[in-house]
Amino acid sequence: MPGYFNAEDLQAVRERSRIEDVVGAVLTLRPGGGGALVGLCPFHDEKTPSFRVTPSRGFYYCFGCGEGGDVIRFVERNQNVSFVEAVEYLAGRIGLQMRYTDLENRSEPGLRIRVLEANRLAEEFFARALTSPEAIVGRQFLAARGFDQQAAAQFGIGYAPSDGHALRDYLRKMDVADETMVKAGLVRENGWDFFQSRLLWPIRDAGRSTLGFGARKIFDNDRIPAKYLNTPETAVYKKSNVLYGLDLARANIAKKNQAVIVEGYTDVMAAHLAGVDTAVASCGTAFGEDHARLLQRLLGSADVRAGEVIFTFDGDAAGQAAALKVFNLESSFTTQTYVAVEPSGLDPCDLRIKQGDAALRELVGRRVPLYRFVMENVLSGFDLERSDGRLQALRAAAPLMSSIRDASLVDGYLRELAQLLGMDINEVRREVGDQRKRRRNPPAPEPAPDAPALVEVSSLPVPNARDPRLEPQRGTLRLMLRAPEIFSADWNQLTAAHFSHPAYRAVAEQIFSAEPAGRTSPAWPHLLIGDGTDVLVARLIVELSVEPLLRDPSPEYAAEYTTQLLLAELSGRIEQLKSRLQRTNPVSDKPGYDQMFQQLVGLESKRKQLRARIG
Question: Concatenated DSSP letters for 140-151?
Answer without folding.
Answer: HHHHHTT--HHH
